[in-house]
Write a structure and sequence with these properties.
Two copies of one chain form a homodimer. The C terminus of chain A is likely disordered. Chain A contains 17 helices and 22 strands. Chain A is an alpha+beta fold and 484 residues long.
């Protein structure tokens, strides 16, 4: 419970309807998309303008009260999990599109604007916002910036960081800062890139200017089937090696196909070991040439079936299965745990083989459905939370996959962030000097550690406690306490 | 002069030929491409491996000795200007290409590898390194990362930061760190982006992994002439608004044409007020379609002459004038000062008009030759250093242009960095809270401020001394001493 004086101070800034303290009111905020972790905050604050955010942060800073910023709560790594000793600062009321400039091809947005709403508003100018996380119907641009979100089209069009021009935010001290500029570059350290993916640890975002992309005149999709997972992996490598950057390049394995096809009837072959979806977009001439070349490469690399979408309805149908893969998992298993790791493309086939071995070892099925073009894996481990021991085995299985990602030169997150979920993986991926750099950055923005505490970057002490230590160039990095 | 014990300590790491202390030996290092600023360092160190860099930094850190890292010394903002109380750490011996992976499309490089040498080595695989600063024959990848260098093709292919996958470096404490990964994303704060453009203030770079790009199968260039500068600016806006991202989109004004054409005979019309060079690259089909569309847009926007290169020789000839613009300035003026600022594209025409007014006011000619597509201006102010008062007027003229860039929502540097040259502009562009963020970042990496001191980020105290203060949202930000 917040003490009286804090409640009074916050009550001077916010009307009662924007200052939730009763248990039944704060319960909807107890977790984000990672429902494994739950905590009820002391209060939920719903400001509606930047001046209120400034005043709230000044009060929290003075009182040393932790603050967890929250967008739509669709995050999958627990980045918005509340702190039981702190408050949740919801940006839900910041949902205005402030400006769209079709010549500069930019949109100025409040942080609570939904990802898809940007493209809907820009459509009249023939433009759209390219990064398209699966949750795009609900997730907000502020959360996208915080997590540096990706999506199906990021192989060609880049992650959030590549599509954001300017971010305005409030430091924990209440100071307003702006990073980036209307120009294509900016002087000084690249704090704009630093804010992208900083998971709410450095500032509370109050305005985002994004780059809009012209809608391609044409798009076609190829469905290619393989009787062997490794061949599909090699076909991905061959397409990339040929210098093609498809608008989307996705892979699904047999188990995924068998879960998805009866659900959405996308037209996937049920006897294939793997399928690839390869999209080309651009001018009609460009698409024609690229589709032809990809078809040839797929055939040369052992595709048993290659089908090109003949019209927009068929293209949408081919993608419908990919987009429904996660809900489809829910049809064949009571629970699933979505892993997010990224590996160099050359390692796709061997990593999938190892995941199959882990699956046998743990006795848990695993669906593989992922962004093959950029090596971003999303293994879905199927389990039953009501079956004793399953949850623990699932967690161990997931950790093994992430360790494997690091082993082959990859990273423990592609687009879902670290949050509370992957603190252990951070200990393995980074050496102590590197983690100390992260802590030093945090300290530089938020000396007392009040913004989203306990997320994204583990202390070296915590790594030691978890018994997870970075192994680098053959030697074990010895644990030290952070300098700050 | 270095004291005896420091000399002895450095002498244990480096052979005499790699430890220069005599005045005649250190003189070649007294400045970089910004020759206006010169200083002789106490010593120049030329290590040849990372272990030596580590030991050197440990010694300098213990002795609180400033260290200025240096690549090829082609920088234009004084980023490698020595500190008279410190040493220059040259990476000139780090010139090995360590690996090229044509499948992953990456190259692993020592920092002293020349920009053009990367493309030469990758050519056998049909690949090249896209960012192409004008100095690419000499400048090195380490310096490119430090300055986040651009070039003619950056509009389509991105700046250095968009083409670097991984950077390995040494902190001032001697600790080795690696940022980025072989995968397309990385967990933790985006320190890779932070290192790009950090101008040698955060770490000494010892290895860089870059992304290679497939060589386009075809490239064509359009030369378009205009009888009015504003019309050329509008044509640029029209091309971008049509959703085209040319491989290059450059503008030159009348004075530039008159300096360049007699020098290289590129075939530019001497009676034009401005010309645009618009390049398209990609598959033959794509290039054909894009060139046709650009030609139409140029004609509709008042081009008096439009010529498309018919073969590679003609394309190279059209670009030769653009590439020779800076040396050509030397033929019509004893001295010139190259300004580097970036503005939103919509402001090109009004900003060029204002620059013409400044030119009259200061009585100095100004050539305008620049990356129009990304709004990156390079006004060349022509002056005579032997003419009393010219240098001061030139500096004042340059400062006015940069202030104008900020006024229209742009930034004081596009690709040359801040260095020692633009500290004043930083005071105008950033509010004190923002400058404090920069200082906090510096402090996080280099508490004692030994790496490239006095560059890139002015202290608030210095801003006050220079009488240059940020004006933001109508109020003057009051000067404060930095927190650290």
């Amino acid at each position: 419970m917040l003490n009286e004086s804090l409640l009074a101070a916050l009550g001077e800034i916010l009307p009662p309807s924007a200052l939730l303290t009763a248990g039944e009111d704060t319960r909807p905020y107890e977790c984000d998309g990672l429902t494994l972790f739950r905590a009820q905050p002391l209060a939920v604050l719903l400001p509606e303008n930047e001046a209120q955010v400034v005043e709230i942060l000044k009060i929290c800073n003075a009182a040393r009260l932790p603050v967890v910023a929250r967008g739509a709560g669709t995050g999958l790594s627990g980045g918005a999990t509340p702190n039981i000793d702190g408050v949740v600062l919801s940006l839900a009321k910041f949902k205005r599109i402030l400006a769209i400039d079709p010549l500069a091809r930019t949109a100025v947005l409040q942080p609570g604007v939904r990802n898809l709403a940007i493209s809907e508003a820009a459509a009249v100018h023939g433009l759209y916002y390219a990064p398209d996380p699966s949750s795009q119907i609900a997730c907000t641009i502020g959360g996208n910036v915080a997590e540096n979100s990706g999506g199906l089209h990021c192989l060609k069009y880049g992650l959030t960081v590549h599509n954001v021009r300017r971010v305005r935010g409030v430091l924990v001290t209440g100071e307003i800062v702006e990073f980036g500029s209307d120009a294509l570059d900016c002087a000084g350290y690249d704090l704009l890139a630093l804010i992208n993916g900083s998971e709410g640890l450095l500032a509370v975002i109050t305005e985002v200017t994004v780059r809009l992309t012209p809608k391609p005149r044409e798009a076609k999709c190829i469905l290619a089937a393989f009787d062997d997972l490794a061949k599909a992996g090699e076909a991905v490598a061959a397409i990339i090696a040929a210098g093609i950057i498809p608008a989307g390049l996705e892979m699904m394995d047999r188990l995924t196909i068998s879960a998805v096809e009866p659900f959405v009837h996308a037209g996937y072959p049920l006897d294939a070991e793997a399928i690839l979806l390869c999209e080309s977009d651009g001018t009609p001439e460009e698409v024609l040439a690229e589709i032809d070349e990809m078809r040839m490469l797929l055939e040369n690399n052992g595709a048993t079936q290659v089908e090109v979408s003949q019209n927009e309805a068929q293209r949408v149908r081919l993608w419908s299965g990919r987009k429904a893969a996660f809900p489809a998992a829910g049809r064949i298993s009571p629970d699933y745990y979505c892993i997010d790791g990224t590996i160099p493309r050359r390692s796709i086939a061997p990593v999938l083989t190892r995941i199959a071995e882990f699956s046998k070892e743990f006795g848990l099925r695993c669906m593989n459905v992922f962004h093959a073009g950029d090596g971003n894996l999303h293994p879905l481990i199927l389990f039953d939370a009501n079956c004793p021991g399953d949850a623990e085995k699932t967690e161990a299985f997931g950790a093994r996959i992430l360790d494997l990602c690091i082993e082959v030169g990859g990273t423990i997150t592609g687009e879902h962030g670290v949050g509370v979920e992957k603190l252990g993986g951070m200990c393995v991926q980074f050496a102590s000097a590197e983690l100390e750099c992260f802590h030093a950055i945090k300290h530089a923005f938020d000396e007392a550690g009040l913004l989203n505490p306990g997320k994204a970057v583990p202390t070296l002490h915590r790594c030691a406690e978890m018994g997870r230590m970075h192994v680098h160039r053959g030697q074990l990095a010895h644990p030290e306490l952070p300098r700050f």
